[in-house]
Structures are given as C-alpha cells and as structure tokens.
TrEMBL record:
Gene3D superfamilies hit by this protein: Alanine racemase, Lyase, Ornithine Decarboxylase, Chain A, domain 1
Gene Ontology terms for molecular function: diaminopimelate decarboxylase activity
Name of the protein: Diaminopimelate decarboxylase
Subunit structure: Homodimer.
Organism: Aromatoleum bremense
Chain positions with N6-(pyridoxal phosphate)lysine modification: K61
Pathway membership, UniProt: Amino-acid biosynthesis; L-lysine biosynthesis via DAP pathway; L-lysine from DL-2,6-diaminopimelate: step 1/1
Cofactor(s) listed in the protein's UniProt record: pyridoxal 5'-phosphate
Reactions mediated catalytically: meso-2,6-diaminopimelate + H(+) = L-lysine + CO2
UniProt binding sites for pyridoxal 5'-phosphate: G240, E274, P275, G276, R277, Y371
Keyword match Lyase: yes
C-alpha cells in the first residue's frame, strides 16, 4: 500500500531510510511519513485536473501535522478545515487563507470570526441557523462572508456507516429539497456573498458511481439557481476517494475524477475537492516494537508498544491495517493478535496476522498516514507518538514525542 516502502539490506526502508534507523534514533511508537509518497498522491490530482479551473483543498483532519501541512502548502494546495484550531495550524504552516474552505455542522461564533478575519475562501454552510449567524457576524465585522451551501444529495456512498455522510438521515448538510429556498434567502442577506455549492457524501469510497450521482444532482441545482439569477463560482465535490488497505481496489484518482470531469465539461465554475485519506493515507505508517510474545491456547499475542490510543481505527471501525515485520526472522511465521498495552480488550491493532518475529523486533502498521495520529489520544496517560517525515536520505522530526509531565501540566490538585 505504501509506494515508497521497500526491502533494503537492513530490513524495510522508506525512501532511502531504514525503518530500523528511525526507531533507533527517535524511539517507538513513531509515525513515519514519506514526502515522495505524499507528493505523488498530490500530483495525481494535479495531473487529472490539469487545464481546468480547479482547487484541491487537503482535508486537514486526516493529518494535521505542521510538517505535512507545510508540504501541501508548498505544493499549492488549499485546505479544508473543520475548526478554528485547524485554521491556526494552516496559517502556522504557511497555508494561503484565500484557499481555505471551512466545513462542519457546528462552527462557533468565535471560529467564524477568526475565519472571517483571516479572509478564507469559503464557508461551507450546513444549516439555516448557521447562515443567519454568519450573516450577523460578518455584518458586525463590516465584511461579507463568502458561502457555499453544503447540500445533502441523499445518495448511498456504500461505505462504513460511521463515515458515510450524504444520506438524508445524517446530520450533515442542508436537505436537498430545501437548498433552493435557502439560497434565495442567502441571496437577500446583506453580509453574505454566494460563492458556490458543496457536497461530501462519505469517506473510503471505492467507486465513483455514488459521487457522480451526487454531482448530477448538484449540477441540476446549480442550473436551477442560475435560472433564478443566482450564479455560482465554484462547485466543491468534497473528499472521499478510498485507498488500498488490504485488497480493496479503489479507482485511480484519474479514474475517480473522469466521470465527474465529463459532467463538468464546458462549465465555467471552478472545481474544488477536499481529499484527505487519498493524499496522505498511504504516505504513512506506524512503527512499533514488540515488547512481548505471549503464546496462548487459542491465540498468540504479540504485545507491541503502540496501542489504540496511537491508532484508533482498528478498535473504532474494525479497520484493517497491514502489519509487516521490518526485518522478518528466519523462523516459521506464527499468527498473532497484535495488541497494545492498554487495559481494554478493544485495544488491538490487528487480528490473526502471520509474522516471523521475536520480542524486540519492529513491526510496521501500514496505510496509517490518514486518521492515525490525528485521532490519537493520551488514554492510559500514554504520551503520543513522535512523527517524522522522510525525504530521500533525510529524516525530519516533525513532532517530538510527548513527555509525561506535559500530559498533566494543565492540571492541579485541590488547594
Ligand atoms: N470533506 C469533509 C466535509 C469531510 O467530512 C471529510 C471527512 C473529508 C472532506 C475528507 O474525506 P477523505 O478524503 O479523507 O475521505 N476517521 C475516519 C474518516 C472520517 C472522515 C470524516 N470526514 C477513518 O479513520 O476512516
């Protein structure tokens, strides 16, 4: 799944750096990202969209490390944010606020003010109440808020229920049938400027059928609006393209976009996307060390130093991440439950995986670049992992390992 991971004389290496050297120098658990893999993923979007008015807004939630954001900023990406915190990160990483779109159903007044002050590209508005608040706050600041309505096209993305967002019983977006009326209202508001339309139907999509269906609906609405004199400048079709974790066969970026680009041919609106996973998921892995092997009557456990606090996806979604020994031993493979030290049975990283390892060996959990570190926690007072970016022969530490003291630095006993 990771294009720049390959075997070398010292076991697996990412680009030119052996994973063993990274573990030696920075310790484990550690997230390792490949600059080349990230750039390749971004280039796939760039090529597929070449010659069009288009903006790729990286979904910051997938991985918000400043080093990662700075690389995307340098590549010319825009950003899809869902909080004031993510906006701060984008600005700190040198991102262009003029290329930021702000999604999310619960934007606070403070977050709206920050985004207005920064001069973001667009608010993807998800309800009438939000639109009213935004109009009021923009008025107070003497500015006009650029908006798109995020419409809910009510199509089934055929993905995990926790990450499908475009069905009408989801909390996301404005119900499709009410969007026209809400645009009319927005058109009459003094402090908003209608800029576009947005939709996002779900994540880890493995074919473009559902998004093409959504796009058709959205374009129908765009034309209805135009007939009323409401002209949109951009169409944002969200993120969602899936990646290969195991044996999935997601379309290439070009194949995913092809039916959408066909629908959009000859139109003048700028085309926006908000990909997260497909840009960073297979550019990263979680490197962990085996603490103990624990043979059992029915199952053998490989207890590693990473846990569900570091990578929550297996526990949360029963997600599959390939697990590979960094330097497999010359012993027969044995099937292991790969588990962490946390006191919960849900603390597993992988089930029933063949590994030829001994205690002390390194194991890499692949395809962990997206929604890995970003969803990590300090459960069990575990300092979060360090993060590095490999660039050819060089390794850059882009997040230090947390110290235990920092975890309770904001706390105090009663006086
Ligand atoms: N835009 C919006 C409005 C979103 O809600 C999301 C993801 C994206 C873009 C980016 O979607 P992507 O291209 O990454 O599929 N934690 C889950 C994934 C949650 C996705 C939430 N929204 C996981 O680990 O699978």
């Amino acid at each position: 799944p990771i294009p720049t991971l390959r075997p070398g004389p010292d076991g697996l290496q990412i680009e030119d750096v052996p994973l063993a050297a990274i573990a030696e120098r920075f310790g484990t658990p550690i997230y390792v990202y490949s600059r080349q893999a990230l750039e390749q993923a971004f280039d796939a979007y760039r090529h597929a969209l070449a010659g069009r008015r288009a903006l790729v807004c990286y979904a910051v939630k997938a991985n918000s490390n400043l080093g990662v954001l700075a690389m995307f900023a340098k590549l010319g990406a825009g950003f899809d944010i869902v909080s004031g915190g993510e906006l701060s990160r984008v600005l700190a990483a040198g991102g262009d606020p003029g290329k930021v779109v702000f999604s999310g159903v619960g934007k606070s007044g403070a977050e709206m003010r920050e985004a207005l002050a920064a001069g973001i590209r667009c608010f993807n508005v998800e309800s009438e109440a939000e639109l009213e608040r935004l109009d009021m706050l923009a008025g107070e600041l003497g500015t006009r808020a650029p908006i798109a309505l995020r419409v809910n096209p009510d199509v089934d993305p055929k993905t995990h229920p926790y990450i499908s967002t475009g069905l009408k019983n989801n909390k996301f977006g404005v119900a499709f049938d009410t969007a026209l009326a809400l645009y009319r209202r927005a058109a009459g508001m003094a402090n908003v400027r209608i800029s576009g339309i947005a939709c996002h139907i779900g994540s880890q999509l493995l074919d473009s059928g559902p998004i093409a269906e959504a796009a058709e609906k959205v374009l129908g609405l765009v034309d209805e609006l135009a007939a009323e004199g409401i002209h949109l400048d951009h169409i944002d079709l969200g993120g969602g393209l899936g990646i290969r974790y195991r044996d999935e066969a997601p379309p290439s970026v070009a194949a995913y976009l092809a039916p959408l680009l066909r629908l959009l041919d000859g139109r003048s609106e700028e085309l926006c996307f908000e990909p997260g996973r497909s840009l960073i998921g297979n550019a990263g892995l979680l490197l962990t060390r085996v603490e103990y092997l624990k043979p059992g009557a029915e199952r053998n456990f490989a207890i590693v130093d990473a846990a569900m606090n570091d990578l929550a996806r297996p526990a949360l979604y029963d997600a599959y991440h390939e697990a590979v020994a960094v330097a497999p031993r010359d012993v027969p493979e044995c099937n292991y439950e790969i588990v962490g030290p946390i006191c919960e049975s849900g603390d597993f990283l992988a089930h029933d995986r063949p590994l030829a390892v001994a205690a002390g060996d390194l194991v890499a959990l692949l395809s962990a670049g997206a929604y890995g570190m970003a969803m990590s926690s300090n459960y069990n007072t575990r300092p979060r992992a360090a993060e590095v970016i490999v660039d050819g022969p060089r390794t850059h530490l882009v997040r230090q390992r947390e110290t235990v003291e920092s975890l309770y630095a904001l706390e105090s006993p009663l006086p």
